Known about the structure:
Elements: H1 2-22, H2 51-59, H3 64-72, E1 77-85, E2 91-98, E3 103-109, E4 115-120, H4 122-127, H5 132-137, H6 142-153, E5 156-165, E6 168-177, E7 180-187, E8 192-195
Antiparallel strand pairs: 1-2, 1-5, 2-3, 3-4, 5-6, 6-7, 7-8
Amino acid sequence: MQGLGIAFGVLAFATTLAVAQTNNPAPSGHEPSLSAGRNIGPRGSGGGHRAGDLQAQQAAKVGLLQAIDAAESQGQGHAVEADFEIQGGGHYEVKVLGNDGTLTEHHVDAITGQVIKIERHPIEEFLTRLKPADVQSARTTLRQALAIAEQQAGGQAAEVTVRHEGNTISYRVTVTSGDRMQEIWLDADGKIILSR
């Protein structure tokens, strides 16, 4: 009987710990994950894009813009997030917000530029605050924001995300140049509002 009491005590402690961890405030959407011009460190340091990802992406024959074009050509909607993933030989993951509000992730082969997998994300579409009208009403598209950021940083875009900011959107673009990364934030009009 005493063993059962100990087991319940451990379970209650683990549950309390899990709840405490989920109640921690999420990082602000305005906090870039990389410092200005920071060198890319080993896996586990810095932001979402790692040194191995960068090396594999530099070997890719398809760029992020081409991957976005391939994903958007699969249906009606606009890309709201795109990045390079090294798993499975290297591919881009492009999330497209459909005109009907559905969120779909397209895996685009980094060598051929072909869409190799499509996944629907019903949970994410529920959690996202982005609506198709938000993306459609922006004066600057994700593609244009990406091109502006690449020109500003003199490099190649590795990641791009649309963020919902109050009643408008903004873009966060991670650009690589050599072994360095820079985050550039743009508003819905394509104006650079932060560069780190």
